[in-house]
């Protein structure tokens, strides 16, 4: 499209363009932040000038940069500064880390952190007394890795006024000892009873954490993302970083719909959307939590959970918003041209979201809404074709679709084998014609796209490659998985005309991997890493350990 000299040429590797034809090239040229040519090495080299930077990719794979369709980036940045338990395993390691963090930070009024796994404790419910043994003089509050439960010590419960007489809040549950006293495990909106007391990070701290998270995501080959459940505090940090010109990523924000409010919050949400229309930042989405999670029995199911004896009880989980109200809110937001992002784990939650979208479609008519439902742990077969029919994107978190302790101990026994076989139906959704977008849900999971892609392709976790695939009929191919993390996520981010594929005229948002995963001799996909990340033709990450 142009004959001017390139600023940057990437050659010497395989270029997987992710265009509609899924074509390949040998090299790509960039000028003024745009892709000006892709093709053979000879054709691209015609654009080499005296000042052109030429990088020899040395048989590595060049891709459009990854886009994460569901990542809590600012939370992730803050998590890395708190008592971070994500990379630890088991009660003993957690408690040692809490003790060490408290000793290192005597100035902190509260000890807060996140990342513990439910499978480390009987029934997934840790006790306050264990935390009391390591920190008793200050309150401790630790959310678990999925963010839907928390572990508090006695001091934190005391400050929050949580006793045996405290009722479970709407949309939440307090785990209790046999005598009715609180154990220290809080689920869903019961967490709010303590969390509201925590000191809030300053705006400067939030902005700094966001920039740390951005650098980390760039190091993984990610240049765009959608951040869900954005509160005023998160929004103001993004807005300031963007206004200061320090937001190098392209970011779409999904503003949190407050479940305890009604339509009166619409005016505030519209105002926030209007404040984020410059640079690389947009705030055109709304996030609904339709249910909770399966492991603590708050995911909304059509049929009851099984008890420990294998027989059904009467608990079908929680609908965080009454379905008729959800449908009314969705129709209103769709009328005001918001993109809607639903958290739905259980099959009832997915159906309630689809029903709400179907109602909005009938009332408002079809438009390019790109609403999406994320997580999709249990989906009934009859609901799978509805995604394409309603134009709904399936926003999937592939790392969860594998055999791991939380699945074995806290999920399958309480879903039952028949319902457990309906989990994470990625291939079924793809075959039905649904658009797939991939997101990590960091800090719930690693934000590394390549580990997630490995699970999508193999249905086996990188840490336990010796295990059998989990529901192998739902495996995707490598090209399908790469598409979901590039052009698929670009679609849901409304960026497919800007990035998501390597095509002339598009932004030069590129990632170079340290190997070519299409080469069967290159090793497991999840062992690959981002060697180079480029945004608008500017290098934002380069692995200096590698030769270029």
Strand content: 15-25%
Based on DSSP secondary structure assignment, what is the total number of beta strands? 22
Look at the helices and sheets and give the structural class. alpha/beta
Tertiary shape: globular
Radius of gyration: 23 Å
**Overall CATH architecture of the largest domain:** Alpha-Beta Barrel
Helix content: 25-40%
Structural account:
This protein is of the alpha/beta class and 548 residues long. The protein has three domains: 8-65 and 503-542, Urease, subunit C, domain 1 (Roll); 110-195, Diaminopimelate Epimerase, Chain A, domain 1; 258-492, Metal-dependent hydrolases (TIM Barrel), CATH 3.20.20.140. Helices cover 30% and strands 22% of the residues. It is built from 19 helices and 22 strands. Strands 1, 2, 3, 4, 5, 20, 21 and 22 form an eight-stranded mixed sheet that branches. An eight-stranded parallel sheet has the order 6-13-14-15-16-17-18-19. Helix 2 (73-79) crosses helix 7 (203-219), helix 7 crosses helix 8 (232-243) and helix 10 (323-335) crosses helix 11. The longest helix has 18 residues, at 347-364. It is globular, with a radius of gyration of 23 Å.
């Amino acid at each position: 499209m142009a004959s001017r000299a390139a600023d940057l040429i990437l050659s010497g590797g395989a270029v997987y363009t992710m265009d509609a034809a899924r074509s390949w090239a040998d090299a790509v040229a960039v000028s003024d932040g745009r892709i000006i040519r892709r093709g053979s090495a000879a054709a691209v080299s015609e654009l080499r000038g005296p000042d052109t930077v030429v990088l020899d990719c040395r048989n590595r794979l060049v891709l459009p940069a990854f886009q994460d369709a569901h990542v809590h980036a600012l939370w992730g940045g803050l998590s890395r500064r708190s008592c971070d338990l994500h990379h630890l395993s088991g009660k003993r390691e957690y408690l040692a880390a809490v003790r060490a963090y408290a000793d290192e930070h005597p100035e902190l009024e509260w000890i807060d952190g996140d990342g513990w796994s439910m499978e480390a404790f009987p029934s997934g419910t840790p006790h306050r007394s264990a935390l009391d043994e390591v920190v008793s003089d200050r309150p401790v509050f630790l959310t678990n890795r999925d963010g839907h439960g928390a572990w508090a010590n006695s001091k934190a419960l005391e400050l929050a006024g949580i006793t045996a007489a405290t009722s479970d809040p709407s949309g939440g549950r307090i785990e209790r000892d046999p005598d009715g006293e609180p154990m220290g495990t809080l689920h869903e909106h019961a967490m709010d009873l303590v969390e509201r007391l925590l000191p809030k990070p300053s705006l400067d701290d939030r902005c700094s954490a966001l920039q740390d998270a951005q650098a980390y995501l760039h190091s993984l080959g990610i240049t765009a993302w959608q951040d869900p459940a954005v509160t005023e505090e998160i929004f103001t940090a993004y807005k300031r970083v963007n206004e200061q010109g320090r937001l190098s990523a392209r970011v779409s924000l999904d503003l949190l719909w407050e479940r305890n409010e009604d339509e009166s919050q619409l005016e505030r949400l519209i105002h926030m959307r209007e404040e984020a229309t410059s640079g690389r930042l947009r705030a055109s989405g709304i996030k609904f939590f339709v249910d909770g999670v399966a492991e603590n029995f708050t995911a909304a199911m059509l049929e009851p959970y099984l008890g420990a004896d294998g027989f059904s009880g009467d608990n079908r989980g929680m609908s965080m918003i009454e379905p008729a109200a959800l449908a009314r809110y969705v129709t209103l937001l769709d009328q005001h041209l918001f993109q809607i992002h639903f958290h739905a784990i259980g099959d009832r939650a997915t159906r309630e979201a689809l029903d709400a979208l179907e109602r909005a479609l009938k009332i408002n008519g079809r438009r390019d809404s790109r609403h999406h439902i994320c997580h999709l742990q249990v989906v009934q077969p009859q609901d799978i074709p509805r995604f394409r029919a309603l134009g709904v994107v399936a926003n999937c978190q592939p790392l969860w679709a594998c055999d791991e302790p939380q699945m074995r101990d806290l999920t399958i026994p309480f879903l039952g084998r028949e319902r457990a076989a309906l989990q994470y139906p990625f291939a079924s959704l793809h075959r039905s014609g649904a658009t797939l977008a991939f997101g990590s849900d960091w800090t719930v999971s690693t934000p590394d796209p390549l580990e997630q892609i490995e699970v999508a392709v193999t249905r086996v976790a990188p840490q336990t490659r010796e295990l059998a695939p989990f529901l192998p009929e739902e495996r995707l191919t490598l090209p399908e998985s790469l598409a979901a993390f590039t052009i698929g996520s670009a679609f849901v981010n409304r960026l497919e005309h800007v990035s998501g594929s390597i095509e002339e005229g598009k932004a030069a948002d590129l990632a170079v991997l340290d190997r070519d995963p299409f080469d069967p001799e290159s090793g497991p996909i999840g062992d690959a890493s981002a060697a180079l990340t480029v945004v608008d033709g500017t290098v934002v990450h380069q692995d200096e350990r590698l030769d270029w």
